[in-house]
Amino acid sequence: MAGDETRVTKISAIKDLASTVDAECCIVQIHGPELGKKYTLLEHEFTIGREEGNHIVVDLDNVSRRHARIIRMQGRMFVQDLGSTNGTYLNDQEVTQETPLRSGDLIKVGGSIFKFLTGDNVELQYHETIYTLTIQDGLTGINNKRYFLEYLEREMGRCHRYGRPLTLMLFDIDFFKKINDVHGHLAGDYVLRELSQTLKRLVRKEQCFARYGGEEFAVVIPEDGGDKARIFAEKIRHTIENKQFVFENQEIPVTLSLGVADMTPDMVEPLQFIKVADANLYKAKKTGRNRVVG
């Protein structure tokens, strides 16, 4: 939307390795069926699983009946896998024993992700986490569709006003359904996260990189012009084609198809712009995939 750019207040880093008995602590679901729900950890043991009777019930097929637990021991909070089929992950590392938690840690249980919060002002951290969820995708950690559409509308207005170039790139993962079918949905989630964090390092702060939906992503590129944007699109394609994606000791080949479009004077709505980039993405997929069209 037109106006000042949305800003996110950063949560102060918590230095303590783990929480103390007296510290308030909770987990917040940042990806999954009950997005944004807060669970205060008052019990000595707090279980997560698919069946009724757990403190948190996550109704997903890739969550075991009793999947994981968070326990309080000697003044610290720990996470432990309960022999689940798909494993429990802490900050993308599989939990193989009781592992201490720090504020801000991400706990992945099947297709859901929880953020652990503790410290002097858990309520403030919780509200900041919820605000971040309104503009950020919980799985990949990059901007979400809502933020992308607001940013695109704002930049279209600015670039029209000052006669500046604006380029939009849409891309998606080739044969992503096959990745899910062959390697499982947890592997698919891993690919989405790893790809996002890899490309996030290539995107400048004045650009917008977002998850548009499913396995589709968008990059909005102000000022550079079409030629530079297409070179950047090739860099993205090449980076992912040559990156190793390894999940549970299995290598997963990943390539991208990309559609690039330049804003024209007759484009007044974001959806007009998106339609052109999406048409080029469709051409990239129809003409062999793993290529840039625009």
Q: Which SSEs are present, and which pair or pack?
A:
Elements: E1 24-31, E2 38-40, E3 45-49, E4 56-57, E5 68-73, E6 76-81, E7 88-90, E8 93-94, E9 99-100, E10 106-109, E11 112-119, H1 122-135, H2 145-162, E12 166-173, H3 176-183, H4 185-200, E13 208-213, E14 216-222, H5 226-241, E15 246-247, E16 250-251, E17 256-262, H6 270-286, E18 292-293
Parallel strand pairs: 3-4, 17-18
Antiparallel strand pairs: 1-2, 1-11, 3-5, 5-6, 6-9, 7-8, 7-10, 10-11, 12-14, 12-17, 13-14, 15-16
Give an account of the 3D structure:
There is one protein chain. The chain has helices at 122-135, 145-162, 176-183, 185-200, 226-241, 270-286; strands at 24-31, 38-40, 45-49, 56-57, 68-73, 76-81, 88-90, 93-94, 99-100, 106-109, 112-119, 166-173, 208-213, 216-222, 246-247, 250-251, 256-262, 292-293. The strands form four sheets. It has a six-stranded antiparallel beta sheet, covered by helices on one side. Strands 4-3-5-6-9 form a five-stranded mixed beta sheet, with no helix packed on it. 37% of the residues are buried. It is built from six helices and 18 strands. The protein has 294 residues and is of the alpha+beta class. It has two domains: 25-135, Tumour Suppressor Smad4, CATH 2.60.200.20; 145-292, Reverse transcriptase/Diguanylate cyclase domain (Alpha-Beta Plaits, 2-Layer Sandwich).
Compact description:
Residues 164-294 form the GGDEF domain. This protein has 294 residues and is an alpha+beta fold.
> What form results from the Cα inertia axes?
globular
Tally of discrete structural domains = 2
Biggest sheet, strands in spatial order? 2-1-11-10-7-8
Helix/strand-derived class?
A: alpha+beta
Total helices: the number is 6
The CATH architecture assignment of the largest domain turns out to be: 2-Layer Sandwich
CATH topology of the largest domain: Alpha-Beta Plaits
Portion in strands: 25-35%
Total number of strands: 18
Helical content stands at 25-40%
Q: Give a short account of the largest sheet.
A: 6 strands, antiparallel
Q: What integer is the average pLDDT?
A: 92
Topology order in helix (H) and strand (E) letters: EEEEEEEEEEEHHEHHEEHEEEHE
GO molecular function, one term: diguanylate cyclase activity
Protein name: diguanylate cyclase
Pfam families: FHA, GGDEF
Catalytic activity: 2 GTP = 3',3'-c-di-GMP + 2 diphosphate
